[in-house]
């Protein structure tokens, strides 16, 4: 298993919404190079209120450099209850249960405001 190491410095990039900075991730492997990661980048206005059930609308501009180091919320969804593993295994294979155990922490932050991208790019230059 690869356990990445983080440092908080990437280049600042300009988007049509404003400037953005992410995190540098260096996988714990001699075969993999560093990656610039930009998490939780908004690409549209939150689909709430009058925008609910409508096509995405261009997002708001921001000033300054937005630090894109945290995942945005995921869209609301009904998640399986896996607190009782014995009961959960009656409805799903063990592999799915193990996968859900790893995935659920990333799905706990749910919101209708969920139109965000996670961007991964090869690091520019030396990390």
Describe the protein in words:
The mean pLDDT is 88. By secondary structure, the protein is of the alpha+beta class. The protein folds into two domains: 1-72 and 115-127, no CATH class; 77-110, no CATH class. The strands form two sheets. The protein has a four-stranded antiparallel beta sheet, with no helix packed on it. The chain has a three-stranded mixed beta sheet with strand order 2-3-6, with no helix packed on it. A hairpin with a 4-residue loop joins strand 2 and strand 3. The chain has helices at residues 85-88, 94-107, and strands at residues 5-7, 13-14, 19-21, 23-26, 35-42, 65-67, 116-122. It contains two helices and seven strands. It is flat. Keywords: Glycoprotein, Signal. It comes from Ranatra chinensis. This is Carboxylesterase type B domain-containing protein. Residues 10-124 form the Carboxylesterase type B domain.
